[in-house]
Amino acid sequence: MDAKDISYAVIKRLPRYHRYLRDLMDEGVERISSGELSRRMHVTASQIRQDLNHFGGFGQQGYGYNVAYLYSEISKILGLDSDHPMIILGAGNLGHTLANYSGFDMCGGRLIGIFDVNPALQGKKIRGVEIRMMKELPEFLRSHRTEIAVLTLPRSYAAEATAILVENGIRAIWNFAHVDLDVPDNVIVENVHLSESLMTLSYNLTEYRKKHEE
């Protein structure tokens, strides 16, 4: 099946499968049925089989799934077996926290640069990576293979920074800025708007209270 025929919902579930399979490997589990996996993940066994069948199935009737093999295959599907050089734009609280996140290594991400507009931060290092000034960004992108840009700048800087990224060949942006980015169709943007997520949680909590307080 062509990747364009696979729904976004299926793709969004793959990292969750990956995480549960990692836990199973840590527990020493060698194989698991779709039924047992469904009980752990609270996803129907039918849904698991349908999702994995988009990529070849990987299971054997009466045997289930080889945990290590399935973990490896999903890693490949997600591109985690590849090296993804990445930069962070914005070395404030959020950017600093993300730069210190060791989980990038497990996701194929390799932090190679951090940029900010605050001169007081110039030359400081986070996990051994030096903070550079934004004016250095174009030259850095021209001289360093970079695949992913993480955007944690204030919204007032986001549009200008995005234009520089696009002009210099960046095709994947992880956007934490509180603004929707205007990019060409060939640029992939994954938006993480923390306030919107919190608002959604607040809505669901409000609805729960309404139902249980009536």
Structural overview:
The chain is of the alpha/beta class and 214 residues long. It has two domains: 74 residues, Winged helix-like DNA-binding domain superfamily/Winged helix DNA-binding domain (Arc Repressor Mutant, subunit A, Orthogonal Bundle), CATH 1.10.10; 113 residues, 3-Layer(aba) Sandwich (Rossmann fold). 44% of the residues lie in helices and 19% in strands. Strands 6-7-5-4-8-9-10 form a seven-stranded mixed beta sheet, with helices on both faces. A hairpin with a 3-residue loop joins strand 2 and strand 3. The radius of gyration is 21 Å and the shape is globular.
Quick structural summary:
With 214 residues, the chain is an alpha/beta fold.
Q: Strands across the major sheet, in which order? A: 6-7-5-4-8-9-10
How far apart lie the N and C ends?
Answer: 48 Å
Broad CATH class of the largest domain: Alpha Beta
Please give the CATH architecture of the largest domain: 3-Layer(aba) Sandwich
